[in-house]
Amino acid sequence: MPDAVTICECFARDGLQHEPEFVPTATKVALLDAFADAGFRRLEATSYSHPERVPGFSDASEVLTRVGRRPGVAFKATCPNPRAVRRALADLDAGHGADELSLLVSATESHTERNLRTSRAGQWERVEEMVALAGGRFKLVGVVSVAFGCPFEGAVDPGRVAEDVARFADLGADLVTLGDTTGVATPRSVRALFERLGTEVPVVAHFHNTRGTGIANAVAALDAGCRNFDTAMGGVGGHPSAIRYGAGLTGNVCTEDLVSLFAAMGVDTGLDLDLLAKASAACEDALGRPLHSMVARAGFTPTPNQETP
Known about the structure:
Layout: E1 6-9, H1 11-15, H2 25-38, E2 42-47, H3 60-66, E3 74-79, H4 82-93, E4 100-106, H5 109-116, H6 120-134, E5 139-145, H7 158-170, E6 175-180, H8 187-197, E7 203-207, H9 214-223, E8 228-231, H10 255-265, H11 273-287, H12 295-298
Parallel strand pairs: 1-2, 1-8, 2-3, 3-4, 4-5, 5-6, 6-7, 7-8
């Protein structure tokens, strides 16, 4: 049997946070439904960020209310602070909550201060409070940003990242995501970190394609035993529209491109390629421009029996 991986489609949250204009709620819901139709079992649906600070997700509760629910499909929402978790709990009590919550930390002090407006110690205190508030009612996903390098402090000690992962595991996180926030990881550094972390808690590979290395890094993570990946249709997103870390294409690994490569390698993603292509086109229509997927232009990688001389 081929290897099997789980890909969490992040277009509706991490992807859209980069957009300066509000994307209509109905459009978000239609896209999430299309992603579920294509076979995604985990979908990053929205964020409970402060609606004035991140207005693109001011409709978080409405999105979760209107999206179609189906067995085996989990919707995830990002929670930066305890107030966000209280909003998530209110939605859950109202019958339309998220299935998973992402809880954020950064591996460096400088990024924590810029991105979360507190210290690392302060953010870990928030995370502990958020876990207590969640009360076991959600699947919890810890997120370690700038896990491979920081735009303000440079290289990040892998030991500190390992400590953060262990701390999330001790708090009961079901998954821990490693974010290559500015796209500085290499296949060598990815392999070393993923092999170091072992299997105490499943780790999610979340790479940005800032320097064109995202897919190579994903394959390195796969080879090191990772079976959970975050991607976004069209390679969009990466950073909030009002916060930029460096230059270049800062977005996520393109879902279409990574799925195409995995399929050609015999790695089972559980996704329907025809419906994935339709969802990809719908994302471009939603944003009114061509996105960054090469597969969207060239088609999926042929399998050996489809290749022509």
